[in-house]
Amino acid sequence: MIILGAQISAPSVNALLNSIDLKMAPPIAVRLRLEIRAVVRFQFAKGTKCSVIYREVVENYGEHAMSMTQVYLWCSWFKDGRTSLQDEPRFGRPNTANNDWSTARVDELIKVDRRVKLKEISLKIDIPKTNVYEIVHDKLRYRKVSARWVPKMLSGEHKRQRVENSQIRMNRCQQGDETVDVGPGGDHRARNKLFEHLITGDEIWLHLSTPETKRDSMTWKHLSSPVTKKFKVQQQK
């Protein structure tokens, strides 16, 4: 019998593969993995060294061969008396990251909050972050991009407010003027009472607001989505 180029006695390998109780035919990748494990067990039973088994598996199966670590691991299991070629049952919640429900749920969370993080999605739907990454990037084709910086643009309302604020300050300066005598010569100079209310001291910045950074503005979008614009702002003092 020849299994993908590997010459092995038919009764031995067939007996190993027929011992697998499957309700339905496994996918080709699973079938190939089981065959390689059968080859490893067959060669190990013959007394072949693990390093030689690995070289033969690589020579016959090429890119589909298991790694050297896996060969040594399975040899140790067979040495301990393991007979099954199938994976041991895993406990805990099964991986549901690739089903339609998980994909739809991730898409829903992104549409509700375009700035949601992968870690937050992972915690909300209880699947690994790596699987969330696969759904977002490979299945839903989302990319997280930041808004494009554009020059500051003042609206008509902004300009009107600036003019009003400047006019108020000018009026206060003009209304506060008075003439006083300064010095023994009776020199008359203008003094502005407004400046009497100013207090000097060490300079300190008191920010009225902290604008978000360009990174903070990153949102999930498809490649065909329009580019979001963001005015470049600075902290107000």
UniProtKB/TrEMBL annotation:
InterPro entries documented for this protein: Mos1_HTH, Transposase-MT_Hybrid
Domain of life: Eukaryota
Database matches in Gene3D superfamilies: 1.10.10.1450
The Mos1 transposase HTH domain, residue ranges: 35-81
UniProt protein name: Histone-lysine N-methyltransferase SETMAR
Species annotation: Plakobranchus ocellatus
